[in-house]
Amino acid sequence: MIFKVLYQERSEEVPVRERTTSLYIEAETEREVRKKLADRKLNIEYIQALDEDHLKYEKQSEDFQVESI
User: Fold this and answer.
1) What's the CA gap between 30 and 33, in Å, rounded?
2) pLDDT digits (tens, 9 = 90+) for 57-67
């Protein structure tokens, strides 16, 4: 399953919408996503499991790239 992760680069700052970034990662569960990203020290705001239609929409973006961790 592909998850979309919305996060802030700096974990010590308060989340600000304008600085929110996203990445896509393949995992079985949200917990597995968090484990894979634990060493990056990101301020994770939200993790969203992408259903088939949403994934199809996200793939249309030129920024779409699934992280391999």
Assistant:
1) 5
2) 998 988 888 88
d(CA 26, CA 35): 12
Model confidence pLDDT, tens digit, residues 16-56: 788 889 999 999 999 999 999 999 889 999 999 999 999 99
CA dihedral 45, 49, 52, 56 (to 10 degrees): 30
> One-letter amino acid identity for 24?
Y
Which residue matches tokens 């600000």? Answer: 16
